[in-house]
Amino acid sequence: WSYRVNGPKPEMLARVGAQVAGGFMWWWVLWHLFHEYEHITGEFDYPDPSSWTNAELGIPADDV
């Protein structure tokens, strides 16, 4: 705990690890935004739910 002073400086491994992890995270986000932009823009085709059969939906037959 520190009051009016800086806390202890993190170790070099922790600082480098945080920079590497943050850099990897941003690379991952920007890479996928560039190569898979359909997730953001909605350009992929959505299936028509009215064409699904009861078997595909897992609805049992109406055997009364």
Give an overview in words.
This protein is mainly alpha-helical. The protein has a domain at 12-41. It has helices spanning 12-35, 38-41, 54-57.
Care to count the β-strands?
0
Main sheet makeup:
none
Q: Structural class of the secondary structure composition? A: mainly alpha
Percent range for helical residues? 40-55%
SSE pattern: HHH
Note poorly predicted spans.
none
Shape: elongated
Radius of gyration: 26 Å
Number of helices: 3
Instruction: Quote the distance from N terminus to C terminus.
Output: 72 Å
Average pLDDT score = 89
Sheet-strand content, in percent, reads under 5%
Subunit structure: Complex I is composed of 45 different subunits.
Organism: Anopheles gambiae
GO cellular component, one term: respiratory chain complex I
Protein name: NADH dehydrogenase [ubiquinone] 1 beta subcomplex subunit 2, mitochondrial
